[in-house]
Amino acid sequence: MIPVIGGLALNLALGLSIITIILLSFHLRTGDNRLYLSGQRAALAVSLVSFFATFVLAQLLLSSNFDVDYVAHYTSLETPTIYKLTALWAGQAGSLLFWLFILSIYGVVAILQNRRSQQKLMPWIMIVIATVQLFFLILVNFVSNPFVPTDADFILANGLGLNPLLQNATMVIHPPLLYLGYVGFTIPFAFSIAAMAQQEMNALWIKTIRTWILFVWLMLGIGIILGGWWAYQELGWGGYWAWDPVENASFMPWLTGTALLHSIMIQEKRNMLKVWNMTLIIITFTLCIFGTFLTRSGIMSSVHSFSASSVGPIFLGFVFLILIVSFSLLFYRRAFLYSGKRIESFSSRESGFLFNNVIFVVMCFAVFWGTLFPVISEAIRGTKITVGAPFFDQINIPIGLLLLLLTGVGPLLVWRRTSKQCAIRNFTIPVTVGLVTALILFLLKMRGYVLISFSLSSFVLTTIIIEFAKGIRSRMRSQHENMLIAFWRLMRKNRSRYGGYIVHIGIVLMFVGFTGHAFDSEKEFGLKVGEKEHLNNYQFELLRISEQERPNHYAWIADLRLQDSEGKTITILQPEKRIYFFRSPDPDRRQPHSELDIYNFLNSDIYSIFNGIDTDKGVAYFKIMINPLVSWVWIGGYIFVLGTLISLYPSRKETVI
Description:
The protein is α+β, with helices and mostly antiparallel strands. It folds into 4 domains: 151 residues; 203 residues, no CATH class; 127 residues, no CATH class; 113 residues, no CATH class. The chain is 63% helix and 11% strand. Strands 2, 3, 4, 5, 6 and 7 form a 6-stranded antiparallel beta sheet that branches. A 4-stranded antiparallel beta sheet has the order 1-10-9-8, with no helix packed on it. The radius of gyration is 27 Å and the shape is flat. It starts with a helix and ends in a 9-residue tail after the last helix. 43% of the residues are buried.
């Protein structure tokens, strides 16, 4: 009976979304406020009913109701409770409903927060949100319904269970945060469509949209970082980014969203780039829908993607509909968006931001082309030409280094025009530090992108330190404050600017971590108990192998003693070789999985993988990797989040929108 209620809730939400669009459309034609209020209540009802349907599916998963096909496919009696809940977004039908659930949360927040401050825009905002909800409601009602009953002539005693790769703590929080980013760009898109439709683009609109963009960009960024952490901890290949199509699908809107965050500051400061910003908003939202299409269409081979299904063409049609309608409206309203102002000098901060934007968009296009090229080649020539990590590295490493350079150059430029004297004064110390760093690295026999990346990192860090030092010194002189109080109040007075600098510090540290990949080393070997093997300055000794039966898998656990060059024990590594569904009489259902163990230093990680075991010979096979500087990727990620939170936090003079 409960699955039927869930299905009925989705039917009701579908009808309410159509009613919302009709009521608000008639309000726009007639101006009747009663229609507006009715449409607003219908819009809230769509979200509330979508919440209910999601909670019903969550309850079915937690109670292991195998009468529902989705539950039978993604949970089992042995699946731990927390992973039964995360199965909500593990399959296609559930993930589409979860997309709708997150959008409904955002929809309620947007409606309640702006019902008084943005009354002129709200009808259009609600129409756009309801239209996107309607699209997903059509999918979950008619194409991929999560409440479809199990098609079997007998009662299922157990389900298939969750993929072992997804039974990881990171996967509890990584997908929701990624969805918060993906789905959240619907709201800035809705505001933009409303602003063009109503020809309303005041200061309050810009402030509101900037806050939304910054928040959802942060969520998408955290989701991407956690995805890298999951890949590093769970997949057993020693890396965190493989230019996988689904990784690229999340990276592309983050790139255009980053460009948007930079260029919208020019619109706030100088009332410029309105058409460009609208274009970026449309492209970013479209890329979010397109990324969902890549994940769910099955056209791409990826560890993250779902199997081939009929939702792909529907998603692609929706993508084209968004592009046609949005750019048609943009073309129709182009005169309203034209400001008449121009960039006065190539050496201005505006010019630096615009060049930064162009580089972000170029990188996005390079990733887009590399991701889709195999599909395009197969469609045209009948053969799929694989584009792997070497292609993406060759194209994007130079672009990334150029972006790193611009991160340091931007703060050294001033608005309107940077004079020659000002440029010499601002650039002398950072450039000197960067050149000295390059010389030292050259003498240490570092070459290529390693030398460039470390040198640019020192240049950018010096720039940011100088910017903080200038602000602190100014407050110490003018306000007679000590250094700590001056720093604290400087941050409080201009959270957006200095929070952005902290974000840049995080990005620089991540670049340092990325560059460490050039020094990776690895070795594969087999060991019997008591035997030893060496890699670089470390020694690995197999002390013992134990076995353990757990509720949802069987495990062989290796105890590997890690010693330094002097023979001093550092730690005991315990990688595992697991067999999931080991009780199944069907050998094909048993899933082997390597649960690795990592020992973290500040300057490198010791990465151990238990590849397999020959029980007859008593030999265990391992892969050991030494990955320098990886910790700085995660440290930089923490600083990136901290800086964005500082930028998001409103000052006392600001009104929270």
